[in-house]
Amino acid sequence: MDRESAWQLVREYVSSEALRQHMLCVEAAMRTYAAKLGGDLEQWGLVGLLHDFDYERWPDPPTHTREGARILRERGVDEEIVGAILSHAEWNHDEYLLDRPLRKALSAVDELCGFIYAVALVRPTRLDDMAATSVKKKMKASQFAAAVSREDIARGAELLGISLDEHISNCIAALLGVKDAIGLGSR
User: Fold this and answer.
1) Contact of 64 with 25, CB cutoff 8 Å
2) 152-178 pLDDT, tens per residue?
3) Residues 173, 166: Cα–Cα separation, whole Å
4) Rounded Cα gap, residues 156 and 142, in angstroms
């Protein structure tokens, strides 16, 4: 599957602009980590773009990810992409271990991208001039973006073997590269 086909699939299954923006954020972060970790930029980008495409129709575990996997397999998508998408859900960890850089990266960036996006929405300069310290300060405010797991964010940096500051900075840089596409350009 190429990127255009993946985007068509997203448009077919996802009506929420916020969810589409999240998927674009994760795609950008995955491409950043592919470059850093020697992965295939296109493959890693597709994983990020498609990881939640089934969420609107099947939001509950374990159908979320598994219905998407079924659809992707029916369309002949590479099993490495399907397995990576399955691996990002806790309920699939027994079968789809976080044992490969691609899977680790998806698990690491998913929650963090959502959190950075939320932080950007409350800042006058949005993503511009955002630093890891700003994100970490908001992480301490338990009521801010309360649905985002701070534990998953910290675990993501550990999975990648880097500091939390570096991980946050990498994801901020990735999102800056697509800020207009994700609705976080200048006001």
Assistant:
1) no
2) 999 999 999 999 999 999 999 999 999
3) 10
4) 19
| Residue 168 identity (one-letter amino acid) | I
Kind plus residue range of the DSSP H or E element containing 85: helix 79-87
**Token pair listed for 172:** 């901020």
Q: What is the pLDDT of residues 5-59, one digit of tens each?
A: 999 999 999 999 999 999 999 999 999 999 999 999 999 999 999 999 999 999 9
Give the residue extent of every domain in the chain: 3-176
Residues 6+ apart with CB under 8 A from 28: 48, 174, 175, 177, 178, 182
CATH number of the domain at 3-176, please?
1.10.3210
Alpha helices (H) along 89-163: 101-121, 132-139, 150-160
Write down the residue that tokens 């950007």 correspond to. Answer: 120
Q: Please state, as a whole number, how many other Cβ atoms lie within 10 Å of the Cβ of residue 164.
A: 17
List the end-to-end C-alpha distance of the chain, in Å, as a whole number.
Answer: 35
Residues 6+ positions from 132 with CB-CB distance below 8 Å = 164, 165, 166, 168, 169, 172
Could you give the 3-state DSSP secondary structure of residue 95?
coil
